[in-house]
Structures are given as C-alpha cells and as structure tokens.
Amino acid sequence: DQQVKQNSPSLSVQEGRISILNCDYTNSMFDYFLWYKKYPAEGPTFLISISSIKDKNEDGRFTVFLNKSAKHLSLHIVPSQPGDSAVYFCAATFSGSARQLTFGSGTQLTVLP
Amino acid sequence: NAGVTQTPKFQVLKTGQSMTLQCAQDMNHEYMSWYRQDPGMGLRLIHYSVGAGITDQGEVPNGYNVSRSTTEDFPLRLLSAAPSQTSVYFCATTTSGGDTQYFGPGTRLTVL
Fold first, then answer.
1. How far apart are CA A4 and CA A55, in angstroms?
2. Which of B:26-85 have CB within 8 Å of A?
3. Alpha-carbon span A47 to A55, nearest angstrom
4. Cβ of A98 under 8 Å from any chain B Cβ?
C-alpha cells in the first residue's frame, strides 16, 4: 500500500509555461513534505520542502502548496525551463526530520523548448 | 569536500554471490541510510543508522546487512544475491536535526 502517490508518471510542458506536479498521501501522521529532483545517473537532490503548519512555501521559481484536509501537495514551477527536465519525487516524513523518507514513484517532467 | 561517495558505480553479480556496496561521507553527518530505487516504485528505505554503532531496519531490509563502525562509512552487504535485488542503490546522509537528506550518485546492481 503506497502511502505517497504520484499518479502522473510523466508531464510535458512548453518552456516559459507553468509546470504543476501533484502528490497525494494517505498517512495523516506525515507532517513534513519534500520534493527532490533527479537527473539520469545522479542521486536525487533536494528542491523544496514544507511543514504541515504551513500551506505554502516559495523558493524562487518553485512553490509548494499543501492541502492537509485533502492530503494533497503540489509543486509549481514558473516559468519552466528546459533544464528543469528531470524526474521529480515527492517524499514525506514525521516530525520535521528528513531521516526516514517515504517516496512517491516520481513524475518525469519534460520542458519543451 | 566530496559529500557522499558510493562505490562501485556498476556491478553485475550471479545469483548467490555476496558483495558489499560502499558509502562514505565527509560531512560529519550522524544519520546515514540506504535506499533502493525500482522502476515505478520510487525509493524505498532499506536500513538506516543514527550514529556509529547504531543501525535499524527500514521498509525493505530482507537480504541486506549493514554496520556502522565509523561516522564516515556505512557499507551495505548483500549476503546471497537474488535477481529481485537488481536495482539502483542510493546512500544518503543528514544531520540529526537536518531537514533534508543528501544523496550519493548511486550504484546500479544487476543480479543474473
């Protein structure tokens, strides 16, 4: 039973437009959420995170939104750039620590020039 | 400052063989962990350690052993490799109060 789900395996977006990646979770104990970005043949790299006490966190072109009642979070990338093309993983954990992460299956984002 | 390093990058084993995947970090992080990534399943936690001498199981520990004799190193041992262990393995580290984990570049393992 997957506790963190990314239902879209892939997403294509035109350069300059908004990319929206979605993530759902089932475990209400999760209180800290992270997004990782992964290029081929490399390890995941941290992108942005959000605590359950917030509903939005912004870092440059990246914004994460959290809807606790729906157990849903999304990552917005504006504007999208070709270098953003990668696999994006949503992850969740407990008590503000990133020690034991539960990952979603990932979404391959392709930004078309 | 190399961060998190993993060796080897690639490995092919036959069923029943044993091997050790190496992970080293130079960031003096207390917490280290091993994940495996399989197609369509994201990353799953195998084992983790909160400091030298302390290890614990994650979500998918069967068939793997770990030990943590130093802060820097956290090797993952496959006792008797099986085709189901074909995967990409990632080591990660974080500080005890850290908000994020730093991943190594991965080891791609194929078991025939």
1. 18
2. 31, 33, 35, 40-45, 48, 50, 58-59
3. 17
4. yes
CA distance B35 to chain A (A): 10
Residue A51 and residue A34: Cα distance in Å, rounded? 9
Cis-peptide into B8, omega within 30 deg: yes
Q: Is the CB of B98 inside 8 Å of chain A's CB atoms?
A: yes
B76-93 pLDDT, tens digit per residue, is: 999 999 999 999 999 999
* Residue B59 backbone class (left: φ over 0; alpha: ψ -120 to 50; beta: rest): alpha
CB contact under 8 A, B101 and A98: yes
Q: What is the three-class DSSP state of A48?
A: strand
Q: What is the pLDDT, as a whole number, of residue B48?
A: 93
Of A32, A54, A51, A45, the C-alpha closest to A89 is A45
pLDDT bin (cut points 50, 70, 90) of residue A96 is: low
Q: For the segment B22-57, what is each residue's pLDDT rounded down to a tens digit?
A: 999 999 999 999 999 998 888 999 999 989 999 999
